[in-house]
Amino acid sequence: MIERLAIVGIGLLGGSVAKAARAASLAREIVGIARDPRRVEAALRDGALDRVTDDVGSGVRDAELVVLAAPVLANERLLERVWAAATDGALITDVGSTKAGLARAAGRLHATRRLGFVGSHPMAGSEQSGYGAARADLFRGALVIVTPTETTEPRVVKAVSELWERVGARVATLDPDTHDRVVAIVSHLPHLAAVALVDAVRRFEPGATAFAGRGFKDTTRIAAGDAAVWEEILFANRDALLASCDAFRAALDDLEHLMRAGDAAALRDRLVQVKQTREAMR
Amino acid sequence: MIERLAIVGIGLLGGSVAKAARAASLAREIVGIARDPRRVEAALRDGALDRVTDDVGSGVRDAELVVLAAPVLANERLLERVWAAATDGALITDVGSTKAGLARAAGRLHATRRLGFVGSHPMAGSEQSGYGAARADLFRGALVIVTPTETTEPRVVKAVSELWERVGARVATLDPDTHDRVVAIVSHLPHLAAVALVDAVRRFEPGATAFAGRGFKDTTRIAAGDAAVWEEILFANRDALLASCDAFRAALDDLEHLMRAGDAAALRDRLVQVKQTREAMR
């Protein structure tokens, strides 16, 4: 059992880390760091947090584990303050959905002081946000991608992976750059495509929304995600996302070309190939 | 009650029309026309059909209602034979997912002989196909778009609409061209985008499929649809689909431009607008 766990940012993910850690008796004391402590009073009342502060320095002091759970770009800014205030031997991880930026920042800080950092990306979430949506079982059965670099010590990867497993998650590892390409193509690009599909209805035939069936609704469900959260994510992973968008346009170009050329056989081959790929994902 | 109902094509939709008509006692005799009658013996055994033939002429003879339920482009070819063999006063409709082509063909035939034709598009289906997937309740609660032209007699629209209502469907009407634009943007374009997303994974980062979560799976679920069916549909609605694809690309261009320009405020506005549009569709 950890003596003190500090969580920076008490929204959906940070709040769920607190609740899950409490439920699994992972830490004796759980400290929340929030910009506006009044907004997370519910976490004190329900026992997920023991203490809340808006001061990063005092919040992370003497914590054996610090979890960064602010929005992605904010985590990059917060890491420097956490690094300076953390106790010797502390482990630091985060729950952001892009990893290369924070890994680079940690690499720079590691040259100044050796602390144990490795990124984490729990692939769990919902269209909701905020502490009100936090759940103790959010990570149960979920996949968490842990993202060591060449310089990350194996003991750090092991310790952080075990913590995720103790709250019910499965753990996989990827280097941060590969991780960002992976989430660009399986998460951020589908989001962008869903947003563009909804926007295209307005441009092309606005009245068509009344006729949207299950196919359209499934395909665009993620476009109802929190705009502020997604704006952050899209910008944080901009380079990988724009590169994945080029691959998407090339795939779309090919399909349009086959339709214009009237090449039914080749179009069907492509549809069969994609159907098989998609079915293998069930 | 109709004396004789003839259904051309006994797959998912044609088979469901037979089962639903039988369950609602819509017709005394239900005749199936199938290219290979041996493949629909199950429909005779379970009582959905009274008789099966591979001959369109004898199959539609004396039928008061003929439902074309072959693939879309096949329906256009079959309509001429149905028109020649149908009895005076017969009503003809179809269940295809694009409507302008068949409406044009019916318009030409109407000049040679006045029969009552109006297109129907039941917005019900599944990823499955074939008679084995047919269900008596497939149309219950589903929307059926009936597509009269300027020359369609109101009594024909009324009669066909009432038949759909008797098997539990809600009916809306659109002219065939507007219908095809609507389904292009809410059904065929999302399909094309889903196919391109799955294909983009293979091009960009093949190993990423192992990390596809609920968002990716929802967004691309329709890409597992039957390839032969979709190849037909995409070609049958090619012009409207390619036009809707231009609108989609314009929407995607805008999003990429906002990201490249680093215009977070404008990107967030767009995400908020799309979220509101999408939420209004629930």
SSE layout:
Two copies of one chain form a homodimer.
Chain A: E1 2-8, H1 12-23, E2 27-33, H2 41-45, E3 51-53, H3 56-60, E4 65-68, H4 72-85, E5 91-94, H5 100-110, E6 116-117, E7 119-122, E8 143-147, H6 154-166, E9 170-173, H7 176-204, H8 214-220, H9 227-236, H10 238-260, H11 264-279
Helix pairs in contact in A: 4-5, 7-10
Q: Could you please describe the fold and organization of this structure?
A:
The structure is a homodimer of 282-residue chains. In chain A, strands 3-2-1-4-5-6 form a 6-stranded parallel beta sheet, sandwiched between helices. Chain A is built from 11 helices and 9 strands. Chain A is α/β, with parallel strands linked by helices and 282 residues long. In chain A, 51% of the residues lie in helices and 14% in strands. In chain A, helix 4 packs parallel to helix 5 (100-110) and helix 7 crosses helix 10 (238-260). The first copy, chain A, folds into 2 domains: 2-174, Rossmann fold (3-Layer(aba) Sandwich), CATH 3.40.50.720; 179-279, 6-phosphogluconate dehydrogenase C-terminal fold (Orthogonal Bundle). Chain A has helices at 12-23, 41-45, 56-60, 72-85, 100-110, 154-166, 176-204, 214-220, 227-236, 238-260, 264-279, and strands spanning 2-8, 27-33, 51-53, 65-68, 91-94, 116-117, 119-122, 143-147, 170-173. The interface between A and B is large, with 86 and 87 residues.
